[in-house]
Amino acid sequence: MRLAPMILVSLIGSAYAEGDALVDSLGPREIAVGEAMRGGATGSTAIGLNPAGLPLNRELVFEGGYGYRFDDQASLLGVSACDSTNSAPGCFYYQYAGSNPELGGVQMSRRTHVGGLALAYPITPRVFLGSAIKYFNFSSTVPGEMKSDGFNWDVGTTLRVTEMVNVGIAGYNLWGAESPEFARAIGGGVLARPLQSLAISFDARWKLSGDDHKIRYGGGAEYFLHIGQVGIPLRAGALRDNSLDATYLSGGAGFAQMRFSIDLAARHAISGPNDTMFIASMRFYGPRLRAPGVDSRAAEE
């Protein structure tokens, strides 16, 4: 009788090994460009990738999003309120991930609740520091997965090399309660804007627990098309995960006005485990101010 749970754990792990908190926290913009926004993460994107990016713009924004992943019937929800109009930008947020993996007619469930606060501070016009504290609660009926909860910390930094190039580095789940679903990891990336309407980025992330091959890297591009007072961002990217032996293609589009915007994205695995997901979000804006410049005079204006 003890053999059956062990077989189920092995098969479920091979059937779907993603779906951890480092992935479930991401929104449509970062998904569409291959998760490559650590150098330019703002608003809710900064929560999952790099909290130090919050001072890159100056706006009050409320966001809600929903995603669905077909392979494990996962629903991904997120709401946030971010204010970067003051000297210490920050976000309050809540995220939920619920999945129902099925194997051989046996249906199980995973549930994760995360709530927290992300804060950042511009040390200089070129150097930003950020941190995030979160409380998580994870439960599962999958054999071998234990219920866990507690607090944990993320930290990050963003370097504005020039007006066109940013570098971002972040560490995840570095201090606090230990859980396999909230693994320690580090990530970094570069984002460049060769044109005002074009951003190109490349990121990589390494898990610090387990084997040495848990590397996830990707890149993408965003082109912001202006039509009168309306903006239409177009995004595309690719992602590689060595631990899953999986390669993904992704893309997305949006619609933006002064008071609200909508973002849509999709991702599909072209190798490795079957994995297709769709995700969407809507943002509502309060006051929006001029973004700070690299030099101190522009930052003071």
Strand fraction equals over 45%
* Biggest sheet architecture: 14 strands, antiparallel, barrel
The average pLDDT score comes to 89
Domain count: 1
CATH topology category name: Porin
Instruction: Give the radius of gyration.
Output: 19 Å
The poorly predicted ranges are 1-18, 296-301
CATH superfamily: monomeric porin ompg
Q: Which word captures the global form?
A: globular
Q: Termini separation (Å)?
A: 71 Å
Share of helical residues: 10-25%
Overall SS class = mainly beta
Arrangement of strands in the largest sheet: 1-2-3-6-7-8-9-10-11-12-13-14-15-16
- Secondary-structure element sequence? HHHHEEEEEEEEEEEEEEEEH
**Would you identify the CATH architecture?**
Beta Barrel
Word description of this protein:
A 14-stranded antiparallel β-barrel has the order 1-2-3-6-7-8-9-10-11-12-13-14-15-16. Strands 4-5 form a two-stranded antiparallel ribbon. The chain is mainly beta and 301 residues long. Helix content is 11%, strand content 57%.
For this entry, give a set of tags:
16 strands; 301 residues; two-stranded antiparallel sheet; single chain; globular; mainly beta; Porin; 5 helices; disordered C terminus
List the helices and strands and how they pair.
Elements: H1 3-15, H2 21-24, H3 28-32, H4 44-48, E1 58-69, E2 74-83, E3 90-99, E4 102-103, E5 106-107, E6 110-122, E7 127-140, E8 148-160, E9 165-176, E10 185-195, E11 198-207, E12 215-227, E13 230-241, E14 246-256, E15 260-271, E16 276-289, H5 296-300
Antiparallel strand pairs: 1-2, 1-16, 2-3, 3-6, 4-5, 6-7, 7-8, 8-9, 9-10, 10-11, 11-12, 12-13, 13-14, 14-15, 15-16
